[in-house]
Structures are given as C-alpha cells and as structure tokens.
C-alpha cells in the first residue's frame, strides 16, 4: 500500500468521535482519497496538528518498526489512544503479542511496543538514518498490510523491502493462526476439532 500524508484535511478531532466506528469518521476521507488516487497513492496517511502527528492510514491503525539507537532490538510504534484513534482489536493484539516474551522467543524478535506521539519529521529522520524498517497498516479486514512508500511534501519516503518484513510477517502469521484455529494463545481462542 502506498500512502499520501495529508494534513489539510482531518479524519478525527480531539473530543469528537474518532475513537468510535461511526460513519462520520469516514466521510472526511472521500475527497482526500480521490486526490491521493489521482497522484498514484492507494490510501491516506492522516496527520494532525501543526507538528504533523501521525494518526491512522485510511480507516486503519498505522504502525512503524524502527531500529533502536541502543541496539536492543526494534521499536514497534503506533499513535496513542487519545480519542482520535480507533482502538481496534487487531491493534491491541499486535501490541500485546509484540510485548510478549514468549512471542519474542518464538519469533527471535526483540520488540519494544510503544504507543506514543510521533510525527512526519520523525518518520523522515528515521528513514534518512536507515532506521525505518517497516510501515504497517493494521485493521480488522487487512489484518496487517505493508506500506511501501509515503508521499509527503512532494517527495516519497520509501520503506525498505518488498512487502511485509520480519515483524509484520510474524505478527500476521500468529494472528491468522489464532483466528483460523491452528494455534492457541493464552486464552485468546480455543482450537475446536
């Protein structure tokens, strides 16, 4: 999925209904989505505020995987639930799995899930430093989908790889295994035979 970062239009506003699945949260995206498609992008990356905080990708949660400065694995970063972000079950599942020592051992990944404010400036900096490893659109229908580029101020931030990287792949596999009854995980589901 390619994304066009948009700050002229807003998907959700603090104190509004951005944290709920209501029709009014989707209509602000129609015109920007059309403009993004005309520029060759698949979806919108919603930004908020003068600092261009990253919120969501289309109607999905948005995560990035960033190499840590201290060399202790990878940060899995998404925006905090501040009233403008949908608190989806897939989002919560990814954060829970990423922080679980058993999942980390199983996948040989050292992950540090974080809910924090981050901006397009942060994303551009991580990209220029070679620290931005994956960008993920996460939601009920897509489960986890890779983002390959993000258009911002006339330039593209290109995400390395060609599809899901190790973090997105591991999270997607585990969630699908649980959903489709191939694996049990700490009471999330019961395998029926």
From TrEMBL:
GO terms for cellular component: mitochondrion. It catalyses: L-leucine + 2-oxoglutarate = 4-methyl-2-oxopentanoate + L-glutamate; L-valine + 2-oxoglutarate = 3-methyl-2-oxobutanoate + L-glutamate; L-isoleucine + 2-oxoglutarate = (S)-3-methyl-2-oxopentanoate + L-glutamate. Its EC number is 2.6.1.42. InterPro entries: Aminotrans_IV (IPR001544), Aminotrans_IV_CS (IPR018300), Aminotransferase-like (IPR036038), B_amino_transII (IPR005786), BCAT-like_C (IPR043132), BCAT-like_N (IPR043131). Keywords: Amino-acid biosynthesis, Aminotransferase, Branched-chain amino acid biosynthesis, Pyridoxal phosphate, Transferase. It comes from the Eukaryota. Pfam families: Aminotran_4 (PF01063). The keyword Transferase applies. One of its GO terms (molecular function) is branched-chain-amino-acid transaminase activity. GO terms for biological process: L-leucine biosynthetic process; L-valine biosynthetic process. Its cofactor is pyridoxal 5'-phosphate. The keyword Isomerase does not apply. Belongs to the class-IV pyridoxal-phosphate-dependent aminotransferase family. This is Branched-chain-amino-acid aminotransferase. It comes from Rhizopogon vinicolor AM-OR11-026.
């Amino acid at each position: 999925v390619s994304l066009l970062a948009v700050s002229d239009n807003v998907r959700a506003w603090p104190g509004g209904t951005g944290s709920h699945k209501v029709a009014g949260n989707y209509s602000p995206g129609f015109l920007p989505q059309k403009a993004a498609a005309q520029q060759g992008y698949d979806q919108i990356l919603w930004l908020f505020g003068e600092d261009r905080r990253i919120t969501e990708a289309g109607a999905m949660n948005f995560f990035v995987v960033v190499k840590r400065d201290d060399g202790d694995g990878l940060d899995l970063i998404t925006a905090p639930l501040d009233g403008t972000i949908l608190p989806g079950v897939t989002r919560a599942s990814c954060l829970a799995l990423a922080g679980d020592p058993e999942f980390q051992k199983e996948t040989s990944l050292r992950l540090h899930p974080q809910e924090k404010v981050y901006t397009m400036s942060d994303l551009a900096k991580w990209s220029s430093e070679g620290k931005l490893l994956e960008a993920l659109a996460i939601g009920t229908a897509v489960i986890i989908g890779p983002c390959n580029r993000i258009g911002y101020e006339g330039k593209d931030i290109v995400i390395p790889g060609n599809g899901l990287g190790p973090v997105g792949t591991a999270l997607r596999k585990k969630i699908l295994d649980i959903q489709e009854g191939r694996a049990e995980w700490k009471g999330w589901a019961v395998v029926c035979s």
